[in-house]
Amino acid sequence: MKKDEKKMINEYGYVRLVDVMGSDLTIVNAARVSYAKESFELSEKDERLIRFLASNDHTSPFRHAMLQFEIYAPLMVARQWWKYIVGSSHQEGTGDSLEGWNESSRRYVTEKPTFYIPKPDCWRQKPENSKQGSGDYFDYQTGERLTDELTGYVNQGLALYDNAIENGVAPEQARLFLPAYGLYVRWYWTASLQSVMHFINQRIEHDAQKEIQDYAKIVYEYCKQNFPIASEYIKE
User: Fold this and answer.
1) Rounded distance between C-alpha atoms, residue 180 and residue 184, angstroms
2) Which helix (H) or strand (E) holds 154?
3) Is 203 a catalytic residue?
4) DSSP assignments along 94-144, one per residue
5) Which residues pair with 15 in a beta bridge?
6) What single-letter DSSP state applies at residue 5?
7) What is the Cα–Cα distance from 211 to 219, expressed in whole angstroms?
8) Which GO molecular-function terms appear in the entry (predicted)?
9) Does an H or E element contain 223, and which?
């Protein structure tokens, strides 16, 4: 069991590698089993094989290595991330996901809610030539106003939530008072190296939402630490 320290994204958000199965050698041996061969130490020849597999989209050997993460992120990040669970089946025609996702639930958890509230210098304008993504940053004065407005909105929801809990409302209903998209949630994500690489390749792109980019970069760091050769095929 590999339990790394949390890598913080901001004041609250983090990614932590909980466990990892396999190494670059795992990929090599999964590919070589077709010829009843096995490597016991990674060689230059093995490294060339990994590069060949990745360059030619021979993806199945990358599914034999797994990573498990604990993530604490705003709901808007979690729901973008969830798309990779919905589309994670590696076998066409099946609806079975090959990834695991278990998330904390406010049906049961009543720990103090935590919210993502951008700092005044972090508010972004909508882009001029696209219906999604972000443009330039707002000036500090405008950002300060937006931060104050969001803080007031969150505090109002928290007060209503706390009042509902104190009056005996079931947590699964009391949570309706909490502003949703900025609320931090915690989950475990277990995925094959192929799935993790796919997630990173899409979410470290310059046009990905910055908040999820920040998380993808940390996931990428863990990949490089544990799969240095395979990680060469993750775009920076």
Assistant:
1) 9
2) helix 140-166
3) yes
4) ----SSEEEE--TTT--SPP-B----GGG-BPPPSS-SSS--SBPPHHHHH
5) 7, 71
6) P
7) 13
8) flavin adenine dinucleotide binding; NADPH binding; thymidylate synthase (FAD) activity; thymidylate synthase activity
9) helix 210-226
The yes/no answer on whether domain 7-108+185-233 falls in CATH 3.40.50.10490 is no
> Residue 99 and residue 82: Cα distance in Å, rounded?
10
Delimit the domains of the chain by residue range. Answer: 7-108+185-233, 120-177
Starting at the earlier edge strand, list the strands of the sheet with 7-8.
Answer: 7-8, 14-21, 66-74, 184-192, 100-103
Q: What is the pLDDT of residues 37-82, one digit of tens each?
A: 888 999 999 999 999 999 888 989 999 999 999 999 999 999 999 8
Cβ-proximal residues to 217 (8 Å cutoff; 6+ apart), any chain: 204
| CA-based max dimension of the chain | 67
Give the tokens for residue 6.
């949390």
Residue from 32, 63, 106, 203 carrying the catalytic annotation: 203
Q: Who's near 19: CB < 8 A, 6+ residues apart?
A: 1, 2, 3, 66, 67, 68
User: Looking at this protein, which amino acid is placed at residue 112?
Assistant: K
What is the rounded average pLDDT of the residues 31-35? 85
